[in-house]
Amino acid sequence: MVEVIKKIIHNRAKCLKCGDIIESRYRHDFVNCSCGEIFVDGGTDYCRGGAKEFRNFIDMSEYEEKEINGTITRTP
Ligand SMILES: [Zn+2]
Questions:
Q1: What are the angstrom distances between the C-alpha of 76 and each of 69, 73?
Q2: pLDDT, tens digit, 9 for 90 and up, residues 4-28
């Protein structure tokens, strides 16, 4: 079995309306762009974002993927 863990490095997004790139840096860091169209929240704990119209929301988050090779069940 292979498990993959996704770690958030940058929780950020771009607003197509005003062109702002916003970033949530910690858990309760709720950030709006300057026109109020989009937001990101959650920092690197969880990735939350939204928009009034989702086509204005460009996800620019960066993830680190880690594979875990373990939890192998063997019958002797
Ligand atoms: Zn905006």
A1: 19, 10
A2: 888 899 999 999 999 999 999 999 9
Whether residue 74 is contained in a domain is answered as no
Residue 33 Cα, ligand 1 centroid: separation in angstroms? 5
Give the model confidence (pLDDT) of 28-74 as tens digits. Answer: 999 999 999 999 999 998 889 999 999 999 999 999 888 877 655 56
Token pair, residue 70, equals 């373990």
Q: Which amino acid is at 57?
A: F
Beta bridge partners of 52: none
Residue 40 tokens read as 């990101």
**CA of residue 14 to ligand 1 center, whole Å:** 8
Report how many domains make up the chain.
1
